[in-house]
Design a protein that fits this description.
single chain; alpha/beta; Aspartate Aminotransferase, domain 1; Aspartate Aminotransferase, domain 2; 2 domains; seven-stranded mixed beta sheet; 15 helices; 11 strands; globular; binds pyridoxal-5'-phosphate
Length: 497
């Protein structure tokens, strides 16, 4: 028999593999079905961590043994965002449908950088669906990326290319350029926009952070003034980034107002709608993001409010020519043939900096086909209603109070007798360690606040009632526990003895 080094299975092993895989899949489906019965999060014990400090394996092991290791050392210690009381960050919860779609995509192992195969058609289907959802022209151009951080970065590159078209920045770079490009965003903007300014060579100091009002949305009048001042100083305003759903509190900028200014001033209007943009799927929430349809580009994530398994960010651009101009390149092996597998007009690699890329579109296609946008929109709306319920419960509480307006699904709150936020921090860590609820701490106006971001489609109104009880108990525990400063003072005193 011919010797091979293939890493498919030996012929007699396929059936065993099939049985073991079925069982592993059954266990994973049950894991999702019973998500709410487990702790939200568990600290991985030393034994589990040690399993991932081993030497590079040389010998082979049985698939079943490796599966057993997965069950024992990995599965119990995941992030926890499948659980309904995971509210720490803007994370989607995943769905069994999305999981299967992702497995099927892995089976096909399609490379979606380009070429003539059906996965590319599925990608373009998602682009036209999203154009429809956001009220963009049907020929709008879009591409999957890892997340909104990268989508926001790509938007800067497209806007930069658009602004400097005549200067051929792709060839010459920014070195020795006369003009100085200036971008604008609310002070509540996600940090990735600042990072995008750094990465694009434009420099973070050329991002003007415009003051926000009491709803934490950009003060449009201040935007106007900043643009005028910069023009007067001989600088070149080129981009304004609006936020649809800020990461800290879910605030939504006045997108129509920003669009008016961008139109008048000839600026590229980009929207960071990482999670909030998908509010368009709910007829009730859609008016909150009015003006989204006027953007030049939008960054958003399917892995947050649409619960598609990680990762699935998206970058949508109104003008397909402007989009291609920033990225399309010529390389001999990427040239297009009139027929065959290398045929095609535009490939995804013309629209971003990735060449090899997976078939992310399949899990979005499955999710939207199976649930439909009506149900997905209701699901988004439900999280906002649950957030309002939580807000009411906190407003009625003697211990806690609301720290920021609740626009969508994020509730920020603090403790009444906790000026430095020390108790808030303690409560968040305590609830993590007890596996009861995952919250996060953010800083609002200089003071730590507890942040509950309700994304999970498995969350219910009654979970918030349970959660309020957990919070009250945690607050009592935190007040009884010695404060870190007291511990420090006591140890200093002891040391002095
Ligand atoms: C989550 C988020 C981002 C970053 O998106 P990733 O998918 O994590 O890269 C950017 N902006 C906002 C408003 C977000 O909520």
């Amino acid at each position: 028999m011919e010797m091979t080094s293939e890493i498919d299975l030996d012929p007699e092993d396929w059936d065993k593999f099939r049985d073991e895989s079925h069982r592993a899949l059954d266990r994973m489906i049950d894991y999702l079905r019973h998500a709410r019965e487990r702790p939200v999060w568990r600290q991985a014990p030393r034994e589990a961590k040690a399993r991932f400090c081993q030497d590079l394996p040389v010998a082979r092991r049985d698939f079943s043994e490796v599966l057993a290791d997965f069950e024992k050392f990995i599965k119990p210690y995941a992030t926890g965002n499948t659980h309904p009381l995971f509210m720490g960050w803007a994370h989607g919860a995943g769905t069994p449908v999305g999981m299967i779609a992702d497995m099927l995509a892995a089976g096909l192992n399609a490379n979606c950088g380009g070429r003539n195969h059906i996965a590319i058609d599925v990608e373009w289907q998602i682009a036209s669906w999203m154009a429809q959802a956001f009220g963009f022209p049907p020929d709008a151009s879009g591409i999957f990326v890892t997340g909104s951080s990268i989508a926001n970065f790509l938007s800067l590159l497209v806007a930069r290319e658009h602004a400097l078209e005549s200067k051929n920045v792709r060839l010459n770079g920014l070195q020795g350029m006369a003009g100085q490009l200036i971008a604008y965003a609310s002070r509540e903007v996600h940090n990735c926009v600042r990072q995008a300014m750094e990465l694009s060579g434009l420099g973070a100091s050329n991002l003007r952070l415009i003051d926000a009002d009491e709803r934490r949305t950009m003060r449009i009048g201040e935007l106007d003034k900043a643009i005028t001042a910069d023009r007067r100083a001989g600088l070149e305003p080129f981009l304004v980034v609006g936020t649809a759903g800020s990461v800290d509190t879910g605030a939504i900028d006045d997108l129509d107002g920003i669009a008016d200014i961008a139109d008048r001033e000839g600026l590229w209007f980009h929207i960071d709608g990482a999670f909030g943009a998908l509010a368009v799927l709910s007829p009730r929430l859609k008016p909150l993001v009015k003006g989204l349809e006027r953007a030049d580009s939008i960054a958003f994530d399917f892995h947050k409010w649409l619960h598609v398994p990680y990762d699935a960010g998206y970058f949508l651009v109104r003008d397909p020519v402007a989009h291609r101009r920033a990225f399309a390149a010529e390389a001999a092996y990427l040239s297009r043939a009139p027929r065959g597998l290398a045929a095609g007009d535009i490939w995804p690699c013309d629209l971003g900096s990735d060449l090899s890329r997976g078939f992310r579109a399949l899990k979005i296609w499955f999710t939207i086909e199976v649930f439909g946008t009506e149900r997905l929109g209701q699901c988004i709306e439900q999280t906002c209603r649950i957030a309002q319920h939580l807000q009411k419960r906190i407003e009625a509480s003697e211990t806690f109070f609301i720290r920021a307006p609740v626009t969508l699904n994020i509730v920020c709150f603090g403790l009444k007798d906790d000026p430095d936020g020390q108790l808030a921090r303690e409560i968040v860590m305590d609830l993590h360690e007890r596996g009861e609820a995952a919250l996060s701490v953010t800083i609002l106006d200089g003071t730590p606040a507890i942040r509950a971001a309700i994304f999970n489609h498995r969350a219910r109104r009654s979970d918030m009632d349970d959660f309020i009880e957990m919070l009250e108990c945690a607050a009592r525990r935190a007040k009884q526990a010695p404060r870190p400063n007291d511990v420090l003072a006591a140890s200093l005193k002891n040391a002095g003895r």
